[in-house]
Amino acid sequence: MTDELLAIEGLGVDLPSGGWLPSRGRPAINILSGVTLDLKRGETLGLVGESGSGKTTLARAVLGLQPISAGTLRFDGAPLESGSDFRAIRRRTALMFQDAAASLSPRMSVGEAVVEPFVIHRAPAGDRRAKALDLLAEVGLPPEMAARYPHELSGGQARRVGVARALALKPALVIADEPTAGLDVSVQAEILNLMADLKDRHGLSYLIITHNLALIRHVADRIAVLYLGRLVETGPTAEIFARPRHPYTQSLIAAEPRPDPRLRRADLAIRGEVPGILRRPTGCEFHTRCPIARDICRSTAPALHTIGTGHFARCHFPETTKKGG
Amino acid sequence: MPSAGRKTVLRALLRDPMAALGLGLVTLFVAMALFAPWIAPADPIRLNVVEKFQPPSLAHLAGTDQLGRDLLSRIIYGARTALSIAITAVGLAGLAGLVLGMIAGFGPRWLDGLLVLLFDSLSSLPMIMFALAVITVMGPGTGTLILVVVLVSIPAYARLIRAQTLALAGADFIVAERAMGASGARILLRHMLPNVVGPLVILLSMDIPVVIMLEAGLSYLNLGVRPPTPSWGNILYDGYTSLRAAPYMVMIAGLPLVLSTLGFTFLGEGLRDALDPRLQGRGAR
Fold first, then answer.
1. ipTM greater than 0.95, yes or no?
2. Which spans are transmembrane here (chain B) (predicted)?
């Protein structure tokens, strides 16, 4: 498979719950388990889930910022195992943060920040100052921005600087964590259009992490839904929105506000709170909130069922839940 | 750091009358120390027994001591002694605290545990007892004095830096650097360092008077700077022994101690006030 860029297989991440001294009887906290996901070259994959579902942890694990406890990672055909593998992927991948302003070093000017990747990887950049201005121009920022400091930037400007820095080394993959968080709607649209333009121009692949369904519907080719660190449904965007099969996905889509007062909200709205990750429910993780849960859901974890081409759902009754959409 | 930031700090200092007074006093003492040979009216160690115990007059503005040495000159040269010891000791301790604190905060956990244990052991020693013990082993003198101050001050500085480093380690911009593949050394030097030194500078400036007092105290006990080198502490001691013959000596020797302590303290507090709102503003972003 040559068009596969990133392959995640059976990924598990555990967080040790104790300190640095050996301890007994305190099990590790299971953040992610059994996540299998792949990303093709030139594709935009949307990773959707509530806060605490493990979206950001997944991104960090891919870059080796978070030690993994199970599974394998493969980037561009090569396995990611040792420190040098991760150094290589960090060079070819860029991470965009939810809080763009906080992801910029506070005492480094914008001009220095965007060429930081060149300095880190000792990559030839020619004239660094010219390179910085090129990058700023590419994300639509005027040259005088180069002398500004992060606290002098607006939310949209900080976001553009984040994009410029991400582009610096012409990465193969850009991981964007909530790329529109904290921006007003017009600026959100600008950033998304900019990201789409850059994707076409540089042949980028995106892994976009968000809880914003409207955003993901607009930009993603494929969607993966996470619930409590487990992948519950994955499939092509149009298919997921038209025929969601996992009750969690259905509830998410039903809960999305619609700008039409005559439409009543679907009755499949989600109930209750996310159970704490420390007390992961037995059987199917979602049974505590699921409208169609039966006995088997409380005892046995469901497997991923194939629904259609590239469409999978982790539910015992994927055929009986045809509502929503 | 943008130069605009420095200008606002200076302006904030001058707007606060206490801080401005502190800055003025510190500038005065630094000038005294730097230009002592040009300012001092006489040689501070030249004896002139004929003119001993002269009260302040036009010839000797601050009078003379029991050996006829010009007191004003001795005070001015004493500033040199006090400041050079205080700045060297606090500077070395600050540097060591900075390095050890950053290593503890950023390094592996076992190393952090070990260093914290070391800081705790060092700071559990009572300062005066420790100073006397070191002086007993190494003999009194400037070098011993500096060593004592450095060893006693390191834990406080290192703890401050360690806490700052730990707080920063999880910050988004540090994670961003790691995600870009930056080395540990680059993250520490280029990104951590500029963001942790601010509070340390404030603490150091407030500790300088403590060291000046310690030097004076030990010199008073004849355990610090050796005579005839002028030190505010041994001038004070000379004044104390000649209290009946020349009561003005004690007051004249005490004045620079009081003024320099107040000056550095006001300046340190002013610096803290001038820098803190900016730090909080940055942290909240």
1. no
2. 20-40, 82-107, 127-152, 196-225, 245-268
